[in-house]
Amino acid sequence: MKSLPYSIALLFCGLIIVSMAAKGHSADTNESVQKWEQLAWSRIQDEYKHASFSDYAYMGRTEVNDQQTKDVFRVTVRQNDDTFSVRAEVYFHPVTKHMISINVFRL
After folding, report:
1. What is the DSSP letter of 101?
2. Which residue, among 63, 59, 61, 62, has the nearest Cα to 75 in the 3D structure?
3. Residue 32's domain spans which residues?
4. Where is the signal peptide (predicted)?
């Protein structure tokens, strides 16, 4: 019976450590997404000058291979009398976090 409080305390400490590790990884991912989002947004604005934008969304992250990870963003563009979706794909190295390329195309 004496070991029960010790076991509960040990379990609680383990949960705190796991929770802290998960939060740290999540914060790092959010900062990374924000970095690539800013680059994607700049490229979209350069590509579609004098257009208005709406419904900007982060679509997700895909590990392409060991050397490339891809973040995908989508936005609705209104240019002249035309409204269409545009997709921006940002490729970067998952370890060094160096950008490889940004592809912007109309859907």
Report:
1. E
2. 59
3. 3-106
4. 1-21
Q: What would the pLDDT profile of 13-26 be if each residue is shown by its tens digit?
A: 555 555 544 444 44
Q: In the chain, what's the furthest Cα-to-Cα distance?
A: 76
Q: How many domains does the chain have?
A: 1
* Residue 52 main-chain phi, psi, to 5 deg: -110, 150
47 vs 4, 12, 41, 50, CA distance in Å? 64, 52, 10, 10
Q: What is the 3-state secondary structure (H, E, C) of 10-65?
A: HHHHHHHHHHHHHHHHHHHHHHHHHHHHHHHHHHHHHHCCCCEEEEEEEEEEEEEE
User: 38-92: per-residue pLDDT in tens?
Assistant: 999 999 999 999 999 999 999 999 999 999 999 999 999 999 999 999 999 999 9
Tell me the CA distances in angstroms from 84 to 45, 46, 90, 102, one per residue in order.
14, 16, 20, 19
Cα–chain-centroid distance for residue 42?
A: 16
